[in-house]
Amino acid sequence: MGVASDDVVVIEVAKRAGEPSVVTVNCPDQTGLGCDICRVILEFGLCITRGDVSTDGRWCYVVFWVVKLSASMNIQWENLKNRLMSICPSCFIPFYFDLVNPPTSAQVYLLKLFSVDRKGLLHDVTQVLCELELLIHWVKVSTTPDGRVVDLFFITDGMELLHTKERQDETCERLIAVLGESVNRCEIQLAVDFQQGVSSLPPVAAEELFSLELCDGEFCSQALSPDMKKLKKANVNIDNSLSPSHTLLQIQCVDQKGLLYDIMRTLKDCDIQIAYGRFLSDMKGSREVDLFIQQTDGKKIVDPVKQDILSSRLRLEMLHPMRVMIANRGPDIELLVANPVEMSGKGRPRVFYHVTLALKLLGICIFSAEIGRHTTSERQWEVYRFLLDDGLELPLANSQSRSQIVDTVRRTLMGL
Hints:
Blueprint: E1 9-12, E2 21-28, H1 33-43, E3 46-55, E4 59-68, H2 77-87, E5 109-116, H3 121-131, E6 134-143, E7 148-157, H4 165-179, E8 183-190, H5 203-210, E9 213-215, E10 218-220, H6 226-231, E11 234-239, E12 247-254, H7 259-269, E13 272-281, E14 286-295, H8 304-319, E15 323-329, E16 332-340, H9 351-362, E17 366-375, E18 380-388, H10 399-414
Antiparallel strand pairs: 1-2, 2-4, 3-4, 3-13, 5-7, 5-8, 6-7, 6-17, 9-10, 11-12, 12-14, 13-14, 15-16, 16-18, 17-18
Helix pairs in contact: 1-2, 1-7, 3-4, 3-9, 7-8, 9-10
Organism: Musa troglodytarum
Keywords: Repeat
Function: Binds amino acids.
C-alpha cells in the first residue's frame, strides 16, 4: 500500500476562539472506523459537537466539527492529521519517519520519575505526557514515609519516536520544566516483556462497581447524586419502516464528554455497520443522533430480541460509560474508577488525566495509584485505583465528603 495523499484527512482549524474546527476523513471503509476516529479525537483533547458520516460499504466520508475540551490546550493539528491517517485502511504504515533508527515494532517504555510529593503532582505529570502524545498503559505511583514519590509509567509514543534519544530527552526536559525543583531524577527505558497488570478487587467492591440495577426504565446506581440522576436519561428508538435496507437508530440524550465515542464503541463491539449518520447538539446541552445501520451480513436488525439487546447496551454505555466509587482498603480509603475495554483491547483515552484533575481541584493528595485490568463474566474492564490521603477540608471518613469526591470525579470525566 502507498502512502495516502493529503486529502485523506483534511483539518480546517478555527480562525477565532470558540468556533469549531472541521475534521474531514475520506478513505476506504471498515467496520469500527468511526469508533477509531472518535477515540483519536478524544485522545487529543477534543470534543465532537456535530458530525456527518456516510459510506457505501467500501468508501466512507466523515466530517466532524470539534472544539477543545479546555481553552488552554495547545492542539498539535498536524500530529492529529497524521494519527488519523494512520488508522485509515489505506494508510497502515508509520507516519513519522526516522531513517537512521527506525522502530521495529510498537514498543512499551518505562518512565521512572523520582520527586518530592506535593498536591497535584500526579496530574501535572499526566498533563505533560498527554501534551507529548505519550499514552499511559499502566502506572504505579507510591509515596515513601519521608514524602518522596516514585512514579512508574508504562507508556507508548503516539509519534513512534520514543526509541530516539532526542525524544527521551525532550520528555524529561518537559517534565523537569513543569515540575521544577521537586524532580530528583527522570529516566526512560525500554520495558521488556511488558504485560498489562491485573487488578484484583475484593468481591464486595467488584459487585458494587460492575453491577447496575434497572429501575423506572433506566439503569441506576446508588452513587449518583439526585441532580445527576435527572441528567442521566437516554431515549433509544429503533425503526425499520423508513428504509428498505437499513435500520434507523435514533438517540436522544444529554451531551457529555466522549458520547460519540461510547456510541461508536458499542456499535463496533456489536459488529454493527453505519451507512449514514448525523449528530447534532443544541444550546441546552442535548444531543440527537440519527444512524442508518446494518448488521455485518448487510441485513437490517429486525429480530426483537437483537433490538432489545442493542438498545439496552447503548443506554447502559451512554448512561454509565464509567463507574466511580469509594471503598475501604484496610485502614485506607480507595477511589475506584472503571471503564469497559473495547473488544480490540483498547481502553478509554484520558481517564487517568481527568481523575487526577478532579482530585487536584478538590485539593486531595494521592498516596498511590495503579492501573490494571479486571475481567467479569461479560467483558474486560480497565480499573484505576487511587489511595487517597485524608485531609481537613474533605475528611474521607465523612459520607458526605465521599459523595462529593465521587460526584466531582464523575462530572469531570463526563464533562457535566
